[in-house]
Amino acid sequence: FQQVPMVEIDGMRMVQTRAILSYIAAKYNLYGKDLKERAWIDMYVEGTTDLMGMIMYYPFQPADTKEKNLALIIERATTRYFPVYEKALKDHGQDYLVGNKLSWADVHLLEAILMAEECKPDILSTFPLLQAFKGRISNIPTIKKFLQPGSQRKPPTDEKFVAVVRKIFNI
Fold this sequence. Notes:
By secondary structure, this protein is mostly helical. The protein is built from seven helices and two strands. The longest helix has 30 residues, at 63-92.
């Protein structure tokens, strides 16, 4: 498709974020044990992707709508998305979203939580199970290492980055 992201893995060149992530999740046993678990994982991933999309677009919005859009992100995170995950963790009383085993959905939710906290640091204040979930997942050794300062995790968007993107995309 002549686009990025593009990953070369196992002798393949893959594009399309969802295809890449699904392949990697399946390869590393992070995509459930059966079709039903994969459906749940996909549902949770799509939900977090919707929230993450709102957050990623926020820095590029016009100044006169930023405050309104930040309020919308916080409202949606706290009334639509996070309650679903809080309930899922409560209802099955397990440490992970699906199958009591780390999955792609857990990693994706952690990233969504971290992004939401960049918008509002105390956004999880009314979600005790998500707070505990964040702590558990953040302390998995490979994830903990990835979250350390200086790692490959993308830093929050700053004004310099916004200016570069606006120039590239002529917006």
